[in-house]
Write a structure and sequence with these properties.
With about 140 residues, the protein is of the alpha/beta class. The chain contains six helices and four strands; from the N terminus they run H-E-H-E-H-E-H-H-E-H. Strands 2-1-3-4 form a four-stranded parallel sheet, with helices on both faces. Strand 1, helix 2 and strand 2 form a beta-alpha-beta unit. The longest helix is centred in the first third of the chain and has 14 residues. The radius of gyration is 15 Å and the shape is globular.
Length: about 140
């Protein structure tokens, strides 16, 4: 029992890793950006809610993880445009976004997607464990 408690208390340091998130709701994205880093070993977490900002940040540097938030994934899953699109990304599904991410970030990038908010932290933790350092 003691070993399990010590393992649960062990802090993972992901402070040299970064997450670029593409969501839909600016309020929820901002809230999550404040609570997520401590839960994710202090990884840098940068939220975006429109494609102009997302693509600019995607082109500006290397990231450890690109995260498509549940809202964006739900829109894509029912073939609806993800809010925040622009002229160049009008009508895109997650498939086109994935292709762009891989083109700009290379095959080492970890991409996380989920329809369910309850899975978000666990999926991001798993991706960070094997993601490249960027900071």
């Amino acid at each position: 029992m003691k070993d399990i408690k010590q393992e649960q208390l062990r802090t993972v340091d992901h402070s040299k890793k970064s997450i670029l998130a593409r969501g839909c709701d600016p309020v929820i994205s901002l809230r999550f950006s404040k609570i997520a880093p401590p839960l994710l070993g202090n990884a840098e977490y940068i939220p975006t809610t429109d494609d102009t900002d997302f693509i600019e940040k995607l082109e500006s540097r290397k990231w450890s993880v690109v995260f498509f938030a549940p809202g964006a994934c739900r829109f894509s899953s029912v073939a609806r445009p993800i809010p925040g699109g622009n002229y160049d990304t009008k009508g895109w599904t997650l498939e086109q976004y994935r292709q762009l991410v891989l083109k700009l970030q290379g095959n080492q990038i970890k991409i996380v997607e989920t329809l369910d908010e309850r899975e978000t932290i666990d999926l991001l933790k798993k991706a960070l464990e094997i993601a490249r350092e960027t900071n």
